[in-house]
């Protein structure tokens, strides 16, 4: 649980997104100086978790991910905020378990939704900055558990 003194910092606006299924598991937070408070902030890549009116869900719902399937713990979180012309997307991307094809597909769907969200914000004239934990590594040596990756490849 986040204490009030960490959540509410004097001189800053704060925005949070976290798992609603696993306490203390994952989440993202964005702190912005009060003088730069965004004119708009949403939770979820589709902007629909907080009944957002700014970003409408794409026609093809397959391109948009809001929540993990009901049987999965939610390990994807995102916040979008727009201070001025900068659109900041703060994400905790899902982990893909190499032994479970459905998790790999879910992660790829999340990445597609992230790319779509960023593209739509850019088309609307925003400069887009994606930050957070992308749960992606360039090489096996960049992975938090290289031995696990090596064993799953064999």
Automatic annotation (TrEMBL):
SUPFAM superfamilies: DNase I-like. It is an enzyme of class 3 (hydrolase). Probably binds two magnesium or manganese ions per subunit. Keywords: Hydrolase, Magnesium, Manganese, Metal-binding. GO terms for biological process: base-excision repair. InterPro entries: AP_endonuc_1, Endo/exonu/phosph_ase_sf, Endo/exonuclease/phosphatase. The record marks 135 as: Transition state stabilizer. One of its GO terms (molecular function) is DNA-(apurinic or apyrimidinic site) endonuclease activity. The keyword Isomerase does not apply. The keyword Acetylation does not apply. It comes from the Eukaryota. Residues 11-147 form the Endonuclease/exonuclease/phosphatase domain. Its EC number is 3.1.11.2. Its cofactor is Mg(2+); Mn(2+). GO terms for cellular component: nucleus. Residues 60-80 are annotated as: Disordered. It catalyses: Exonucleolytic cleavage in the 3'- to 5'-direction to yield nucleoside 5'-phosphates. Belongs to the DNA repair enzymes AP/ExoA family. This is exodeoxyribonuclease III. It comes from Hyalella azteca (Amphipod). The lineage of its organism: Eukaryota, Metazoa, Ecdysozoa, Arthropoda, Crustacea.
